[in-house]
Amino acid sequence: MNPDSTGSLQEEPPPAAEGERRRRWWQSHASRVGGGKSSRFRFLRQGRKLDEEFYDSVLEALLGGDVGLEMAEELVARLRIAARDLRIHDPQEAVRMLEQLMVQRLGERNRGIGGAALPGVIVVVGVNGNGKTTTVGKLAHLLSAQGLSVIVAAADTFRAAAREQLGVWVERSGATMVAHKDGADPGAVVFDALAAAQARHVDIVIVDTAGRLHTKGQLMAELSKIGKVIESKLGRPADEILLVLEAVTGMNAIVQAREFQKALPLTGIVLTKLDGTSKGGMVFAIEEELGIPVKLVGLGEGIEDMQFFDPAGYCQALFQDVQQEDA
Ligand SMILES: Nc1nc2c(ncn2[C@@H]2O[C@H](COP(=O)(O)OP(=O)(O)O)[C@@H](O)[C@H]2O)c(=O)[nH]1
Ligand SMILES: [Mg+2]
User: Fold this and answer.
1) Gap from CA of 209 to ligand 2 centroid (Å)
2) Quick one: pLDDT at residue 37?
């Protein structure tokens, strides 16, 4: 792959029917609402009564998963009411109810990734090391697997290694990369990527960005500029601006989200490294505080290790971990 040229793009305009199918896929995912998958989990502790000790252990478990005090207390309060109203006396049943309450709470948000028109544009932002480049690679792979054609814009021009790292991922996914030299203007990279996508009828443009926070002002200005380039080139904003957060970050995630929100209107969160932690309850905290849905989760370093966020599966995993710690 020659990262400095867009001339290697071999893509021909898709036949009309195939183009229509791709457009439909992208559009249908714009309104994808998560949840619905049923799940079962076992019990916090076996053979216990629904006493104060039980509710304390539930609260503790929620806090241990970084759900946040306010949300943890709210969930426990809801559980008490549900247990009273439905005459639940069995802890096992109560835990199942808690899971339902949590899934319900998370299931209300639209977690779709998509847009109204092609080329769709996804901008990936976040602090260095959180997993942006990895996420871009995984996303390119996921979308390519759906039959969509993908251009990745290497707009982290600050770190020399970033482009090479991205190139490896992109090549594996079958997508194409548009890149400039080190230190180039990220806005110009995005402009070229969009121009290439338009010229070649490529479906999706994914933008990898820099994440150095020690020059925060400059970084944020750069991101704002990327937003403006997209608007002026396409006449509409990016479809998705995804903030990548590490699951282990805990409550500092909210601070990070607020910073990036100032530069670009975030449409979703990608929670990475969920494979390495039993935390991640901050999904609740982030969504409550900022109203931004978690849309994707990273579950490892491999190209396939990313999934659309599924509230039911997520709650199940959260409780399985709680259980293991309890055992
Ligand atoms: N275990 C695990 N590691 C991840 C995940 N996502 C990214 N990483 C690792 O995190 C490190 C930083 O990722 P990178 O994509 O370069 O972050 P960036 O600086 O935000 O672009 C790399 O070593 C990745 O392999 C994930 O979901 N799980
Ligand atoms: Mg990177």
Assistant:
1) 7
2) 27
